[in-house]
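Notebook B, p. 112. Complex prediction, attempt 2.
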Amino acid sequence: MQEPTFLILTALAARPLHGYGIIQAVQTLSTGEVKMRPGTLYGALDRLTDQDLIAVEREEAVEGRLRRYYRLTDHGAAALSTEAARLRRRAETAETQLRGRAIPGLA
Amino acid sequence: MSTSDWPQAEPALERAYRRLLYVYPHSYRHRHGTELVTTLLEMAEPGRTRPAAADVRHMIITGVAQRFRLPSGRPLATAAAVLALLGGAALGAAGTSWAAAQTFAALPTEARGAQILTLLAGTPTTIDVNTYYGTPDTGASVSGTTSVRRAAWDPAAARDRLTADGWQVGPLRDTDRLDAPVPGPEHGFQATRDGLLLTAHGESDVVTATVHVAGNTLLRPAVATGLLLGAVSGWLFAGAVARRRSRLAALFAAGTLTVLFAPVWSLSAATVTVFTEPPFGTGVRTVHSVLQPGSFWPPGPAWMSGLWPSTPWAGIGLVAFGLLLAAATIAVSPACPDRPAPSREVAL
């Protein structure tokens, strides 16, 4: 799973969000490292919808404006959970390796 | 919900964003256009009246990318897109090959052919010149035979006469035409002038000459351009059909690919020939010539030759029917497929 996908699914894990809400959440979750643009976002949302990882929850419309709220599906939640566990294992492995690292000058 | 938390923006900015939406495919605009503009307005800083250059660049790049994108998780759509790319490339190459051929020299008349043969023979006896329409890969030619009056043919003198007449004459070669009825040394050479290719052959006092259209330097770049444009068009067509998510459109698309298979096969082989055969041989090789009505070879691989009636119009007929089916593929399906409708609230 690529990082933007992981961040979008994470952003939707707690509650449904509309496009701008997802962009803001992704930026916050990545501590400013990932800034999504709308064109990229909606392409990604289409792809995730096709993969049944997210779904449209509801729409709000007023005076030619539209906010469409997306939610995580059960399949999406399972995929996110699996990815989170995989990343956790990777991080633990990295930390274990770092703890066993020889300190220069003591070898 | 109140309207106070909805983005307020300059009408000019909103109009500019809506104009930029046209870079995206129709179905994408229908599905995401309004929410994309809403998001862009929410992200715009107060007072902005024109889209930022970075936003314009981003929308153009993502819009074009959307047009090339295929729906994920549909391997059949990907396979069809690859076939459409190949088919489009072959048809594009045929189209630009035909356009380039319009700039070729015209085949000489039989009277002009007789003049050339006279020049070649020096003092000819009876001249017999005819026009042949040839096989698709050699094209038409004007060909004639004569004999030299009371002497053997002198190829060196013939080359001098042609050079004086403005022909660019190639080297003299000993030929070995075992089927020639007259015993004796055989010689031949080729010459070009004004986009025509002359192939001369002589044995004893008998001289034969064949004139083909030689083509020009425009052909290969034109075919390469047609290949590229056709490939892109084929892929975009497949993408547009795949986005329609219509079973009927999928059936028509399958029919299109099936009908076009044989002519595209032949066009592909002809395209390879254009780039691999030397420019001077038995005349110019073009891509579109395999579609010209003729009874030499039916379109497609050899094993398909018995599948349809032997008609001179088989190649061009299949292409015309295939293109008709391609147009019908677009016509029979809605441009914007329906998705399950979410619940909608209208803010007050």
